[in-house]
Amino acid sequence: MTAPQTYVQTPAAKAAYDVRWQRIMDCVNLKQPDRMPTTMMATFWLAKYGGVSYRQLMYDYEKTKEISERAILEFEPDAPSPTILAIATGRALEAIDFKQLQWPGHGVRDDQPYQYLDREYMKPEEYDEFLFDPTGFYLQKYLPRVAGVFEGLEELPYLPGLHYFRLVASVRMFAKPRVRAALEKLMKAAEEVDIWAGHHADFTQRMAAQGYPMSYIATAVSPYDLLADYFRGATGMMKDLYRNKDKLLAMLEKAATFLVRQTLASSKAFGHPIVFIPVHWAPDAFMSDAQFKTFWWPTFRKMLIGLIDGGVIPMPLWEADCTKRLEVIRDIPAGKCIYWFERTDMVKAFEVLGDVVALRGNISPSLLTTGTPIEVDAAVRHLADNVFHKGGKLILDGAFGIPDETPVENVRAMFAAARKYAG
Amino acid sequence: MAEMTEQERHLVEWLSDMNEDDAFALAKKMLLEEGANPIRVLELCRNAMDIVGKRFEKGEYFLPELVLAGEMLENIGAIAKPLIKQAPGEEPKKLAKVLIGTVHGDLHDIGKNIVTFMLDINGFEVKDIGIDVPVKTFIDEISRFQPDVVGLSGFLTLAFDSMKETIEAIQDAGLRDKLKIMIGGGQVDETVRNYTGADAFGTNAMDAVSLCKNWIGVAA
Q1: Of A118, A238, A366, the CB nearest to B63
Q2: What is the pLDDT of residues B114-124, one digit of tens each?
Q3: Could you tell me which of A90, A91, B108, B122 has the fewest CB atoms within 10 Å of its CB?
């Protein structure tokens, strides 16, 4: 790889950067910012904006950076998203032979977004094994199941208990043909993944030099969603609430601890305090209040507190409608988090949470994709009048960013309305 | 249904209370040891599923209970169904036919599967044609199956256009007047219903049951 380009941040760009970042931080700290900040999470919508295919966005780093930069400079959000990490993933996914996604050229067409494959990646009878030794379970079972590059590692020696000459002798297992092949493949894959990371760093530096901080870089997941989405699968997890309740609770506890450690390390490595946490399984319709308070919230709260104590600003995106959860999820220290809502009524969220968290969102995806600029303008005005001007620390964005199919004029209308109605 | 014995009441209660272990053991004992009529046992299961559906409507039960109920029913059905020695035509008459599938471009199926299950246990004949279903497949399946209701499912925003295209194709094929179309999943709301030209949208599995029952004139 060629040496990374260096970018010079002019004093004017630094001032713009600082003002934008301050707006976001004022919201986090529950202080009134000089105007309603905007953020922009654009993923495959950039294909529409830039006139390229989804596949190109996933594979062509330079093109994706160029289109993303163009969009940021046109709409001037206070904080955009790390586009390269989020979508230019094709080469990295191929390099590790990732099996949990289908993406253009790998199961879906070139004009379709990547889609996650909900499967049972851990069987119910494997709870004990995971609980006893999570790292061993990852090496021997989980990693080879989710990415081809790890196939062969299951022949590694069982590590706990190795000692003295037993330890010395076990080293020969690393020369077994399948282990050796896995290690060689891993090193090549790591180089490709490193190139992806390099392009991400290049993009964020390029935008910083032009005055734009990222709205987050590291991502995380709640303990419940980690197990539901990435281990047990949606229906497996739902059955576990009845069939494997105690083991599930034990695993959630364990996950809360290792997720905090991992997320703090990741946030530190990226040098960015805001961590984006998409939340899938909290919505009102998905489980009862009692189940939410038993299975979902306690370990997520524990994780939030751990992250806050470590200097991180958690930014959960509460997907779907979480209105009935608002009173419960209020129970965190004030001025430390951004709660991003998708379909929850933002005015109601402000009423319940306005003195505890900054808010982000939430122009409706159906409105953005099928509505008119006038309707989008009215929706932004509604949020400006009923949340921001009433003291809500609102960061305006789409309900989960800009939906892929959104007409460009609706995106223009959203950002223009934010300036028109809230500074 | 006919008066229940104490044992039968237990089965219904345990199934509807999510007491899977006791319910399954009892159903197995009734079917394999005591020679209970398998049709009667399945009727009891359906009775329990009605209770589950009502608790879901009332907001006492949620997705985990629907999923577990579905699995309990499937496990008991796997024992009961081979024991049925039934003459053709004796099967209970279905309320109406529903064709359901996830529209093209979208691979999601959890919501669709739950809707399929709830429609099935509420007496509908449901044909599930899977995920990422091309427009032409919908048209062909509608022509063959002659459904009263078509359910289009989709989680991603790309599904809005796929639903619209599918409904337009149903219209162009001259099939639109013979059936009702409902949509559901993810981001679907009244704005999307209007955009796609569907007759109605639903936000959960019981909405789908209520819509279908209303359309065919059965009390929901």
Answers
A1: A238
A2: 899 889 888 89
A3: A91
